Every structure is written in structure tokens, then in C-alpha cells.
Amino acid sequence: MKLFRGCNLFQFIDIQQRQMIEPKSFTFEIIFTHDGSIRCDGSATCGLSRQNAIVGHQIDSRKFKTSGISTTPHFEIAKKYALHIDKYPSGIVLELDLENLDLSKYEIITVAEKIKSPNKPEDEERILKRYDNLAIPLDIFRIHKI
Q: What's the rounded Cα separation, in Å, for the pair 8 and 79?
């Protein structure tokens, strides 16, 4: 199986300079407040939890920061995110071949298995994260310019 992540050129320049994808946070637990962000479908828990990190990440990873990055098993969906629905004329799709991934270091969370009502079920989102919650090196990906 392969996973893909779309990046616009500005994002990719930063990733390329650092040679890694920096997570927005170095933890994979969050706590929700009563701000209307979550649905009352039973997916979220009370208090600080890993489950809340999954819920929050798929709602809005800029607001609910985690150590995970969003990926999809669909190249065309990653391409859509790279181009920001045609906002940009070109972009980058990062490809990850799971057969070559050291699964002792990385975890792949299938959002639809953890959440009753994913925001974008068509994305079939997989959250990729390191077990140590650190940055993900660029060299595990194959780079496609689109």
C-alpha cells in the first residue's frame, strides 16, 4: 500500500530545506473545550486523550495541533491538496511506500476506524506519526512534481 501527501511549493521549500516534515506539536494528545468544534457522536472523550488527538486532527490540524501528518491512499486527493483546489498552478505530492517503512518507528492511524463520522470520508485519511512524536524525515518519501 502507498500513502500520499500533497504540499504546495511554499510548504515543500520549507520541508526540503529542513529535510523533514515538522509536526505542529510534539505530542499526540489533546483536550477539547466547549467551543463547538466537535460533534456529539461519541468519538471524543472527556479530558486529555489520544482519541481526542485523532478527532481534532481530522477536524482541523491547524487548530488542534498534533505530531501526526495527514496522508491519503489516493494520489488524486493528495494532488488536490497540493494545488489547493487550483489556487496554485503546481505542487508536490509525497509518496510513501508502506512496504519500505520501518513500522517499529512509525504508526499509521486510519481515521475512519477511530471516528464515527470523519469530516472528509472520501479522503480515507491516514494519520502518519512517529512513535516518538518527532519530525518525519523527507527521505522516506518519493517526490512527485505536479
A: 9
Please, are residues 57 and 66 in contact by the beta-carbon 8 Å criterion?
yes
How far apart are alpha carbons 77 and 96 in whole angstroms? 14
Tens of pLDDT, residue by residue, the chain (146 residues): 999 999 999 999 999 999 999 999 999 999 887 766 666 667 788 889 999 999 999 888 889 999 999 999 999 999 999 999 888 899 999 999 999 999 999 999 999 999 988 989 999 999 999 999 999 999 999 999 99
Residue 131 contacts residue 79 (beta carbons within 8 Å): no
Which letter does DSSP use for residue 99 in this model? G
- d(CA 135, CA 22) in angstroms, rounded, equals 5
CA dist., res. 33 & res. 26, Å (int): 20
DSSP symbol at 49: B
Cell of 82: 497540493
Q: Distance between CA atoms of 72 and 40, rounded to whole angstroms? A: 25
The C-alpha cell that represents 96 in the structure block: 510513501
How high is the pLDDT of residue 39? 67
Lookup: cell for 68: 501526526
